[in-house]
């Protein structure tokens, strides 16, 4: 069982622009290779987690029926202090506070064929997992775009991560890092 943060990021390390927007990615229609990479990853996902800002972005920008098309019945823990709606048929579980307790619940629903907890993002939530020692791997699809500001990919201080893999797909570089047991 591993917990993996898989996200697109700008060259200067942001997952969203200063207005929370994602338009900077729309200039790069997904290639077959990029889709395959994500589908291979998602096939191993048994549970997923989002911060409230990311979840609100998904609710605002995707049609409600798209949730099941994208994520099927994979359970998604949403970290929030607020009451938020749930798309039809989505298995969304709202939690707040300690990430370790919620992470234990996520791990409990993973299976040998779907052993991965996917941290969808954003950076604030992924950083809380990292700080709690609950992040094993980071996959970054680096877009050739400089945003100059926005939502940072992982706003926490770490020691060196281990670079496990580098791939090129067209204009993107895909980087996989492993997080050592002890950070900082
Ligand atoms: N490039 C990509 O592929 C990608 C991937 C993911 C996200 N994004 C974008 O990144 C942006 C958001 O990133 P972000 O890092 O600012 O925010 P985020 O991690 O998505 O959400 C942070 C919010 O989640 C809630 N939260 C986090 N931890 C919590 C806890 N332990 N208990 C209760 N609530 C908790 C709080 O919201 P409340 O207090 O309001 O409930 C907090 O302000 C969005 O615009 C999103 O679309 C991009």
UniProtKB/TrEMBL annotation:
SUPFAM superfamilies the record matches: Dihydrofolate reductase-like
Segments forming domain Bacterial bifunctional deaminase-reductase C-terminal: 6-160
Pfam families: RibD_C (PF01872)
A single MF term (Gene Ontology): 5-amino-6-(5-phosphoribosylamino)uracil reductase activity
Top-level taxonomic group: Bacteria
GO biological process: riboflavin biosynthetic process
PANTHER family: 2,5-DIAMINO-6-RIBOSYLAMINO-4(3H)-PYRIMIDINONE 5'-PHOSPHATE REDUCTASE, DIHYDROFOLATE REDUCTASE FAMILY PROTEIN (AFU_ORTHOLOGUE AFUA_8G06820)
Protein name: Bacterial bifunctional deaminase-reductase C-terminal domain-containing protein
Originating species: Actinocatenispora rupis
Lineage of the organism: Bacteria, Bacillati, Actinomycetota, Actinomycetes, Micromonosporales
């Amino acid at each position: 069982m591993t917990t993996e943060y898989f996200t697109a990021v700008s060259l200067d390390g942001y997952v969203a622009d200063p207005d929370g927007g994602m338009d900077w990615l729309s200039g790069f229609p997904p290639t077959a290779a990029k889709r395959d990479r994500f589908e291979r990853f998602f096939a191993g996902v048994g549970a997923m987690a989002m911060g409230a800002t990311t979840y609100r972005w998904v609710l605002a920008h995707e049609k409600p029926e798209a949730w099941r098309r994208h994520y099927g019945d994979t359970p998604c823990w949403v970290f929030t202090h607020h009451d938020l709606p749930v798309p039809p048929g989505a298995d969304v579980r709202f939690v707040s506070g300690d990430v370790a307790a919620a992470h234990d619940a996520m791990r409990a629903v993973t299976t040998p064929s779907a052993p991965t907890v996917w941290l969808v993002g954003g950076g604030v939530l992924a950083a809380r997992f990292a700080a709690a020692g609950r992040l094993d791997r980071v996959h970054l699809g680096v877009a050739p775009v400089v945003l100059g500001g926005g939502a940072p990919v992982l706003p926490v201080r770490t020691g060196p991560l281990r670079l496990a893999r580098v791939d090129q797909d067209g204009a993107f570089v895909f980087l996989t890092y492993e997080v050592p047991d002890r950070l900082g």
